[in-house]
Amino acid sequence: MRILLVEDEEDLGGAIKRTLTQHKYLVDWVVDGDDAWAYLENSWTQYTLAIFDWMIPGISGLELCKRLRQHKNPLPVLMLTAKDSMEDKVAGLDAGADDYLVKPFGMAELLARLRALQRRSPQFQPQELTVGKLTLDYGNNFVVSHDAEGNKQEISLTNKEFQLLEYFMKHPNQIVTTEQIRNQLWEVSAEPVSNVVAAQMRLLRRKLAHSGCDNIIETLHGTGYRLNVV
Q: Would you say residue 45 has pLDDT above 90?
């Protein structure tokens, strides 16, 4: 799950990003509205949710919401602001925000509101994702493999391994390129490392192999990878 965070307060932005990362979200954090709009227009990345601070340099959070809705983009948006009057809340919701959180707030409430937005979203993510003999458990950050006899084995995954396997399971039997994986699973601002995808693939495959799923992800040399599901 990928979130665009737009917050110009360094301490708050850093705290939000750390919290979200700990809960398996991939976060692109920018500090002004102009950069945020550039990220939203970038066809390489697909966001699950967005968090906009209202008062930011460049394009305001309110204007970002308006632009999204003018472009028929249904991305769920949580608005953060110190503005707490009824008129301000109405203005934010009318601009296209899906929810409104007044500063200061606790991280537990932020996470709860994000979960609520996900449930209301057309892209709502269930607690489990099953493809072939693999089941991802979103609540516990592991995958369960099932063999022909019905036996189950839990495989503990790191956040990045979980995100990588999830990406493949959402695109079964499809060829996905290294560039597609890098653009979707690493932050836009991350330093490019030529072998980062291949290195992560080795770690994931090693864990899958220990549960009898050693050949489930195929390497297509010069093209990319494919999760083969019968």
A: no
